[in-house]
Amino acid sequence: MADSISQNAARYRELVANGRWAIQTVWRTSPYPAGGMLALLVLRSGVPAGLALVARGLVNAAVGAMQAGATTLGPLAPWLAMGLVLALIEALGSISHKLLVHRLSSDLNLKITSDILEHAAHLDLSFFEDPRMQDMITRAQGDSASRLLQFYTHSQQALMFLIQTISLVGILVILEPLVLLVVGPIAAPYMVFQWRLSKKRYQTVYDRTEKRRWTSYFMGRFTSAVAATESKLLDLAPLLIPKFQKLMREFREQDRKIHLREFTGSALFAAIATVAFYAVFVRVALRALSGALTIGDLAIFAGATTRLRSMLDNGIRAGTSAAEQSLYVANLRAFLAVRPRVEAGPGLVPSSCEGEIRVENVSFRYPGSEEWVLRGVSLTIAPGETLGIVGENGAGKTTLAKLLARLYDPDDGQILLDGVPLPELSLEYLHSRIGFMAQGAGRFEATAADNIAYGNWRELIEKREQLERIARLANVDSLIEAMPDGYDTMLGRAFGHYNLSSGQWQRIAMARTLARDASILILDEPSSNLDARAESELLETLSRLASKCTTVLISHRFSTMGIADRVVMMDRGMVVESGTHEELLAKRGHYARLFELHERHRLRVRPNGEEAAS
Predict the structure, then answer these.
(1) pLDDT band at residue 612 under the 50/70/90 scheme
(2) Shortest CA distance to 429 belongs to which of 348, 510, 313, 525?
(3) Contact, 268 vs 313, CB < 8 A?
(4) Do the Cβ atoms of 610 and 409 come closer than 8 Å?
(5) How far is CA 537 from CA 5, 48, 448, 526, in A?
(6) For a FRET experiment, which of 3, 35, 75, 257 has its CA 20 to 30 Å from that of 214?
(7) Pairing of strands 603-605, 574-579
(8) Cβ of 171: how many Cβ atoms within 10 Å?
(9) Which three-class secondary structure state does DSSP give residue 567?
(10) Residue 318, Cα to own-chain centre: how many angstroms?
(11) What is the maximum span of the chain, computed from C-alpha positions, in angstroms?
């Protein structure tokens, strides 16, 4: 029992904290629309009670005027004027509220979406590689600005309906005290019902996050240009579409149950409230016939009880909806509260970068995994040296490259640049000194010029001559000049009409990497999608550049190892051999066996026994 009370208290405190954060965010983002909505709330709160009093006064004045034989509107004029003012407030207030909501919605959408993007840009790479974190991102992106707006508007509506209900009940109690015995016993259970229903709706949406990502994945397999080709050739539609439909049918059944439950509860409330208020109205009618109440009292009671039932329903729905939206606000807060595992550190900015890299007994495993990807790796790369890293898939080559760029921090050991541990360096400085070409390098929907400039956009985005020089250095100038609009050609199929082959995209990515003008080049499978000629041009380019900077070259192609000053062989997360290409072949170890296997695949035996390159 004590645990249950403690848990409920904790949930209540969390709801309050979420609500406070949401209101503060709304007011900081757009104070004038938020304030305008609050002012309208104050004005509109007294309208129902005011209209009820006006109706009562108008009827009583009309009866009195008829009894006195009056033929002018004089006795009715004050009530008619008050009624007109209140009607205008109600009508114009509703229209003004819609305008302010649209304004607030636009401001919040800009603010919250920008906050999500800016926060995501500062999170670690490992965050986006964790499926659990993908669920968190999906929940944070799920119409967060809309949820925030709904919380604010529904909170205000709940407050407005509460004030209107209290004022209206206050008037009705004067006429018939039994109204209190109807309102409380009916409203309280209905409020509990709506709150439980709201929690059920939220939990259903929360629990289906991963399944929602699966439905998006299945949609993408048949609607994206990249995936559609393979899906068509493999005829995956009969296999994957039923899986999509199964998930969607599951969602439909869950929603139907919730909607049926909501209908049942709401219908029961409406029926009980209507019968109860009608019973009280009969008593008021009898009192009016006996002369204890006036005709105006009877008129006001009839209209007010009908409106009161509607206000109770709408007010309870608004209040529980605001509480439900605060649960979604918690998802956004949870995402924005995530902090990078790679901390910025003191932020040292050395005056120069020689490019010496030391890896000292480094071990690493991905968050949430117990398997070590790297174990006790140690090596030194001299300034200006080109180090080749080879090994089978899963050997840890790419992970080591990402650690060198401090996209991750090691669990054990340390990495130093020019004798300084990486965590002590400014991340901005460190990344500015590194040109990193990853596997599956980015294909930006942008012009050819921008695709290169993104490598150092602060310096190059408006400098066409320098971009062209970099393109010549990377041997992609002829490729770009052959495009329909040269450097202004929009690449990609999403917004442009000119696409490239995988090898051509990779050559553009190489140019983007060289635009960095870095002290350290990290190239992960730079020639994986290149034909023989393009690879030869790449190796020629790298040979020219390698002497100017420290280069880490990861490749499955042993032909690229020819430009390396030294090669390290990795196996199961460890460095098992190190030396020149010739030295490693002479050792007849791991490297030599992998090289011979590569050569057997590269060569084929013709019928006459002559070997030829395939």
Answers:
(1) very low
(2) 348
(3) no
(4) no
(5) 72, 81, 20, 12
(6) 257
(7) unpaired
(8) 19
(9) strand
(10) 26
(11) 128
Cβ atoms 506, 417 nearer than 8 A: no
DSSP 483: S
Q: Tens digit of pLDDT for each residue in 296-323?
A: 777 778 777 888 888 888 889 999 999 8
Name the CA radius of gyration of the chain, rounded.
Answer: 36
Q: What interhelical angle do 464-473 and 502-514 show, nearest 10?
A: 120
Q: Report d(CA 502, CA 326) in Å as an integer.
A: 46
b/e sequence 430-443, b meaning 16+ C-beta within 10 Å: bbbbbbbbbeebeb
Evaluate whether 43 touches 163 at the Cβ level (below 8 Å): no
| Nearest-angstrom CA–CA distance, 372 and 101 | 52
Report the candidate in 485, 491, 487, 465 with the shortest Cα–Cα distance to residue 476.
Answer: 487
Nearest to 372 by CA among 144, 572, 220: 572
Burial of 544 per CB tally in 10 Å (0-12, 13-18, 19+): exposed
The number of residues in the chain equals 614
Quote the pTM value: 0.77
**Tokens at 318, concatenated:** 């608004």
Q: How far apart are CA 94 and CA 86, in angstroms?
A: 12
3-state SS assignment for residue 405: coil
Q: Which domains does the chain have, with CATH numbers?
A: 7-210+250-337 (1.20.1560.10), 357-442+520-581 (3.40.50.300), 444-499 (no CATH)
Which helix (H) or strand (E) covers residue 186, if one does? helix 179-207
Beta strands in 137-180 (DSSP E): none
**Sequence-separated (6 or more) residues with CB below 8 Å from residue 529:** 501, 502, 503, 505, 506
Q: What is the pLDDT of residues 44-80, one digit of tens each?
A: 888 888 887 887 787 777 777 777 776 677 777 888 8
Decide if 423 contacts 345 (C-beta within 8 A).
yes
Lowest average pLDDT, out of 52-61, 281-290, 392-401, 562-571, goes to: 52-61
Is residue 324 a contact partner of residue 199, using CB atoms and an 8 Å limit? yes
